[in-house]
Amino acid sequence: MRFSKHVWLLLIVTSNVLTLLANETQDSFIISRVTENVFIAHPGRIKKINSTSTIIVGSNYLTVVESQADIVLAKELLKAIRDRISKLPVRYLVFSHFHSDHILGAGAFLEENPDLIIVSHQKTMEHIRLFAAQEQHNWAKLVAAKSIEVAAMAASAPNPQKQELVNTAAELHR
What we know:
Blueprint: H1 2-25, E1 29-35, E2 38-43, E3 53-57, E4 62-65, H2 71-84, E5 90-94, H3 100-103, H4 106-112, E6 117-119, H5 122-134, H6 138-155, H7 160-172
Parallel strand pairs: 4-5, 5-6
Antiparallel strand pairs: 1-2, 2-3, 3-4
């Protein structure tokens, strides 16, 4: 009887270890093609709050919508993009709104491209700046600084970068 308890315990521990190893070797993101140049990336393993990112492939660069919930997930997203979609640089990062699962991964994108342009609604940027002022996190300060730059850019009508983004959107719909 005692032997069988040890065998069961060994089987349970072994199966848990094998499950963990299997999970570590699986892709972090499920990537689905929406159109020829548009993809969605959804975290394949749900360990924490996350969001679905959209990747738009332009002629010379990528636009990513939503940066994920943290830098670790964002780095995994960037790796998945590089391995399975495109090696083009990410030029634009778009925030749909200010919730943490959409913006906290921005640091990984900024590490990869310090000239990254963050695009968002002005109210979203105001919320990020407010959050950065209240919370003393480096990522929040960095995102807020880029957000101020983008808000100023969006406020001026004749802007070449803004026009470039509009032209890219038109290019994707051809």
